UniProtKB/TrEMBL annotation:
PANTHER family: SMALL RIBOSOMAL SUBUNIT BIOGENESIS GTPASE RSGA. Monomer. Associates with 30S ribosomal subunit, binds 16S rRNA. It comes from Nonomuraea muscovyensis. One of several proteins that assist in the late maturation steps of the functional core of the 30S ribosomal subunit. Helps release RbfA from mature subunits. May play a role in the assembly of ribosomal proteins into the subunit. Circularly permuted GTPase that catalyzes slow GTP hydrolysis, GTPase activity is stimulated by the 30S ribosomal subunit. This is Small ribosomal subunit biogenesis GTPase RsgA. Its cofactor is Zn(2+). SUPFAM superfamilies: P-loop containing nucleoside triphosphate hydrolases. Residues 126-277 form the EngC GTPase domain. The lineage of its organism: Bacteria, Bacillati, Actinomycetota, Actinomycetes, Streptosporangiales.
Length: 375
C-alpha cells in the first residue's frame, strides 16, 4: 500500500492517511466502501478510495434530496459511501455525517451539532479539523488587521473546526513583532497564534505539526496573505503538481483533474477551493460569541441583564473600557460583527417567510382546484 499520497501511483491509498477513522465505518451502507471527496462537479464527484481515485455519479436519491436542500449535496472533504456498478463505474451512494462544515447561506446548527437547512444553504467544505487564519504582518503599508482576524476566527469556530492564527510574512517585520502577536492573542482569546515566514521557512514546521494524525486544514485569509506560498512550503513545492492527478473516468479513460483536497507529502491534507477562498458572510452567531468570549464574560457581570453597554450604570463592559483592559477597537469590532450576524439571521428569516408564503399559495391553489373538481 502506498504511503506517499503525492506519488503518481494512484493504485492504492491508505485511507487513514486521508483522515479515515474506523468510527465512521458504522455509517456505511452494506455493500459500499468509503471514499473521500476531492472535488465536486455537477451531479458527480472525484473521490479517493482505498483502490485509487474514481469519478462517481450521485445516486438518484442524493440528487432528489439535494433538489430539496443543497446541504445534502456532497462537498470537498466529505466522506462518502461508494457503490460499485457494472463496467467499473461507481455511484456515490451516501454522504456520511460531517464532523465540521463550512456553510454559506441559510444553514444553522441544531443542538446536537447537526446541520439543518432552509433549502438555500450550501456546504463549501466538510470535515476540516484545523482552520488556519492567515493575516500578513504587513499588507502594503498597513499592519495586520485585527478586525479581519476576529471575523475569520468567528467563521472558523462556527465551522466546528479549531482556529489557529498565523501572522504571515513575519520577515517583513523588524521590530515589534512580539507586541503585534500580543495584540492578536488578545483579539483571539484561547486561540493559538504563531508568526510564520514561508520565505525564510520560519514557523512552517510548527504549522505542519497541526496536521499530525492526518488532519485536514483550510487556510483562510485575504488575497496576498501568502496562503498558496504556505501550502507550497508545506508540500515541499509539490502541492501544485499533486493537484493534477490522472483519474479514471466513468468509462475507464484517464483524465487529468484538478483536485481540491490536497494530501501533503509530509502527512495531513489541505482543502483549497475557490469557495473557501472567497469566504465572506456566513451565519456566525456562536462563532462571534466565542471570539469575544472576554466581552461576553464582562457582559454577564453588568448590573442589568439587558444592558446595552452604552451608558447604563453598573456596566462591566464600559468599566473595562475606562480602565483600559478592553480596547475601544475591540468593542467596536464586537458590535459590528454582532450587527452583521443579526442581519444575516434576519435575511434568512425573510427568505424563509417568503418561501412559506409561496408554499401556502400553492396549497391554496390546490385546495381551490380540489374544490372545483369535487362532484
Ligand atoms: N516577504 C514575504 N513574502 C511572502 C511570504 N509568503 C508569500 N509572500 C509573497 O506574497 C505574495 C502573495 O503570496 P500568495 O501565496 O500568492 O498569497 P495568497 O494568499 O495565496 O493570495 P491569493 O491567491 O490572492 O489568495 C507573493 O508575491 C509571495 O511571494 C513571506 O513569508 N514573506
Ligand atoms: Zn453592560
Amino acid at each position: 500500500m502506498s504511503s506517499d499520497l503525492s506519488s503518481s501511483d494512484l493504485s492504492s491509498f491508505d485511507l487513514s492517511l486521508l483522515g479515515w477513522t474506523g468510527a465512521r465505518a458504522a455509517e456505511l451502507p452494506s455493500g459500499t466502501v468509503p471514499a473521500r471527496v476531492a472535488r465536486v462537479d455537477r451531479g458527480s464527484a472525484e473521490v479517493i478510495a482505498a483502490d485509487g481515485q474514481h469519478h462517481a455519479r450521485y445516486a438518484a436519491h442524493i440528487r432528489r434530496s439535494a433538489a430539496a436542500d443543497p446541504v445534502a449535496l456532497p462537498c470537498v472533504g466529505d466522506w462518502v459511501a461508494l457503490a460499485a456498478l457494472p463496467e467499473g463505474r461507481y455511484e456515490l451512494d451516501a454522504v456520511l455525517s460531517r464532523t465540521t462544515a463550512f456553510v454559506r447561506g441559510g444553514v444553522s446548527r441544531d443542538s446536537r451539532g447537526g446541520l439543518s437547512g432552509d433549502g438555500q444553504g450550501q456546504v463549501l467544505a466538510a470535515n476540516v479539523d484545523v482552520v488556519f487564519v492567515a493575516e500578513p504582518s504587513m499588507h502594503s503599508t498597513d499592519f495586520a488587521d485585527l478586525g479581519r482576524i476576529e471575523r475569520l476566527v468567528a467563521l472558523a469556530w462556527e465551522s466546528g473546526g479549531t482556529p489557529v492564527v498565523l501572522i504571515t510574512k513575519s520577515d517583513l517585520f523588524e521590530d515589534g513583532l512580539d507586541d503585534l502577536l500580543a495584540d492578536v492573542r488578545a483579539a483571539a482569546p484561547g486561540v493559538d497564534v504563531h508568526a510564520v515566514s514561508s520565505l525564510l521557512g520560519d514557523g512552517v514546521e510548527l504549522v505542519r505539526g497541526y496536521l499530525d494524525g492526518s488532519r485536514t486544514a483550510v487556510v483562510l485569509g485575504p488575497s496576498g496573505a501568502g496562503k498558496s506560498t504556505l501550502v507550497n512550503a508545506l508540500a515541499g513545492g509539490e502541492a501544485m503538481e499533486t493537484q493534477q492527478v490522472r483519474a479514471a473516468d466513468g468509462r475507464g479513460r484517464h483524465t487529468t483533474v484538478h483536485r481540491e483536497l490536497i494530501p501533503l507529502p509530509g502527512g495531513g491534507l489541505v482543502i483549497d477551493t475557490p469557495g473557501i477562498r472567497r469566504v465572506g458572510l456566513y451565519e456566525m452567531h456562536q462563532g462571534v460569541d466565542l471570539v469575544f468570549s472576554d466581552i461576553e464574560e464582562l457582559a454577564a457581570q453588568c448590573r442589568f441583564h439587558d444592558c446595552g453597554h452604552e451608558s447604563e450604570p453598573g456596566c462591566a463592559v464600559l468599566e473595562a473600557l475606562d480602565s483600559g483592559t478592553l480596547p475601544e477597537r475591540r468593542l467596536q469590532s464586537w458590535r459590528k460583527l454582532q450587527r452583521e450576524a443579526a442581519w444575516m439571521a434576519a435575511r434568512t428569516d425573510a427568505r424563509l417567510r417568503a418561501e412559506q408564503r409561496d408554499k401556502w399559495k400553492i396549497i391554496h391553489k390546490e385546495m381551490r382546484r380540489a374544490g372545483r373538481n369535487r362532484p
